[in-house]
Amino acid sequence: MLERWTRRATSAQAVALRARIVLACAGEDVPPLVGVARDLPMTEAMRQARERGVLERLPPFDRLTETGAVWSDGRTVEADTVLYATGFRAAVDHLAPLRLREPGGGIRLDGTRAVRDPRVHLVGYGPSASTIGANRAGRTAVRDIRQLLRTDLSTAA
After folding, report:
1. In which domain of life is the source organism classified (predicted)?
2. Measured distance CA(67)–CA(69) in Å, rounded
3. What is the CA radius of gyration of the chain?
């Protein structure tokens, strides 16, 4: 499955999704989504990605584990990466268990990466909250995540 995640995005539109990319394997409970769209519009690029088996849209999960996600009905899905697309409004309260916030309440970033946990990238948050810079921020986050995955895999061997 990992080889599917390392391919380049198929279109600028796919890269431009304003999403918060969360690499999480801490097993923390994830609070339910509140005030967030539950579905994304189906674009041609998304349809093609689904047909190729590199995109599977799922309903909100109940919690993350070290190997993937778990739903209330007991269903589990193994995943190396979770793309958690929350929309245009900064909706990061569900990340509270990760303790990313600084004393003043904000989340300090280095690029799109949370300073307090380098596994967490917030694309479309803070300095990358502009649609003008979304493509660049998305590409940067993907590059950093791929490097993190390569590093994690090489140290696990």
Report:
1. Bacteria
2. 7
3. 15
Which residues on adjacent β-strands are paired with residue 70? 63, 76
- Of the chain, the end-to-end C-alpha distance in Å amounts to 17
Tell me the residue length of the chain: 157
Per the structure, how many domains does the chain have? 1
Q: DSSP letter at 55? A: -
Contact present, 106 and 99 (Cβ < 8 Å): no
Tokens 């300090």 locate to 108
Lookup: tokens for 155: 């140290």
Mean pLDDT of 123-132: 69
Number of helices and strands in the chain (H, E): 4, 8
| Range(s) of the domain holding residue 135 | 2-156
Cα distance between residue 17 and residue 119, in whole Å = 19
Write down the residue that tokens 């999403």 correspond to: 19
Give residue-wise pLDDT tens across range 36-63: 344 556 778 878 888 888 777 777 788 8
Handedness of CA 129, 137, 23, 5 (dihedral sign): positive
